[in-house]
Amino acid sequence: MPRTRMIFAAVAAIVAGLGGWWALSVPEPDRFDQCRPGPRPPGLDKIGGPFTLVSETGETVTERDVVTGPSLLYFGYSFCPDVCPLDNTRNAQATYLLDERGVGVTPVFISVDPDRDTPELMEEFTEYMHPRMIGLTGTPKQVQAASRAYRTFYKVRDPEDEFYLIDHSTFTYLVFPGLGVVDYFERDVGPEDMADRVECYIRAVN
């Protein structure tokens, strides 16, 4: 091969290599960038996963049965004296606001108190919040597996106390079928702000 051609071939190989490196080093654009109040939270793709729980009607369900559309997942318990009712009320209010805009989302309440939260109690709790809210409970092992999948925390303060309280995480996750968790909301996010952001995500998907 003539020297000139060898030089061109070497340059072409270097350029091709740099192009591959550049493609690997540049992150994919965030399709939901306009919906976030800040940068995409790190580790978001590691939150969520399969779970098997028990529905309000006593049926065994998986995440595929529950997350059939945009969903707001919250982990708590019905005997919670303050945090859980407020957070679930906020989620329900955001859902009502979205209903008025013709945007559908399903609020989901997963109990971390399987010993006390029976399907019947979960149904009573969720019906009070929103007619479309889904309440899930299960065995201690099932609940623990679901909590681990979503990287949540919960711990019973005094198991011997009949009226024991549970320390737990308070994030609400926005989940899409096929996409998983796309964002989460902290407690200081109000219902209108939540509704605006959820609507943005849903319209970005559609």
Automatic annotation (TrEMBL):
Cystines in this chain: 80-84
Domain of life: Bacteria
UniProt KW keywords: Copper, Disulfide bond, Metal-binding
Disulfide bond found in the keyword field: yes
Statement: the UniProt record of this protein carries the keyword Metal-binding: yes
Coiled-coil regions listed: none
InterPro entries (UniProt xref): SCO1/SenC (IPR003782), Thioredoxin-like_sf (IPR036249)
Entry binding sites for Cu cation: 80, 84, 168
Pfam families noted in UniProt: SCO1-SenC
Gene Ontology molecular function terms on file: metal ion binding
Family (UniProt): Belongs to the SCO1/2 family.
Protein known as: Protein SCO1/2
Species the sequence originates in: Rhodovulum imhoffii
